[in-house]
Amino acid sequence: MAVDAAPAPAPTSSAAPKIKKDKAAIDAYKLALGAFKTANEKFKADKAANKAALETYKAALEAWKTANAAYLTAKTAILDTFKTAVNAAKATYQTAYAAATTDEAKAAAKTALNNAVKAAATARDAAVAALPPLSSPMPTKPAITKPTKPTKPERPVATPAPSASAN
Q1: Contact present, 85 and 78 (Cβ < 8 Å)
Q2: Is the separation of the CB atoms in 98 and 122 below 8 Å?
Q3: CA nearest neighbour of 17 among 166, 137, 163
Q4: Which is more confidently placed, 166 or 106?
Q5: Average pLDDT, the chain
Q6: What is the pLDDT of residue 151?
Q7: Pick the residue with more confidence: 20 or 146?
Q8: CA–CA dist 93, 115 (Å, integer)
Q9: C-alpha closest to that of 116 among 96, 94, 87, 95
Q10: d(C-alpha 18, C-alpha 160), whole Å
Q11: First vs last C-alpha separation in the chain
Q12: CB 71, CB 132: distance < 8 Å
């Protein structure tokens, strides 16, 4: 049995439909793309300027902390001493209040607490006043406004050319 070999079909030449280019849409897109590129460059520059300002502030703050380290250490020690004195006064008050059986004893415990806190505050204020002044004012944080990122324009969509239909 012989198999009949059918000839291969001849290739048909059908051209792809032509795409109509909308010149006005393309020109508008190119214009919008140019504006986007300009806005994007401004966005990048603003972002870099904000970063530089923040880095400058951080460096100035570290320099200020270093220059005023003795003052800050002394003030921290004074405030820690005040907190310790107040906590001790509160502990003494709680013990005295718990042991008090009369209203006069409870009032005396409260008065003792108030006097101890006032004495600690007076000692703290005197110690802080005796500290040498800061070498310079603390640097202020720069006001940073977050730049808004521009949106990329949409590319125009190509529309196929209308084909001539046979009636």
Answers
A1: no
A2: no
A3: 163
A4: 106
A5: 84
A6: 86
A7: 146
A8: 11
A9: 87
A10: 6
A11: 48
A12: yes
